[in-house]
Amino acid sequence: CQICLKTFPREYHLKLHQTIHCMEKPHKCQRCHKTFKTRWLASRHASKTH
Ligand SMILES: [Zn+2]
Ligand SMILES: [Zn+2]
Question: Which parts of the sequence belong to the C2H2-type domain (predicted)?
Answer without folding.
Answer: 1-26, 27-50
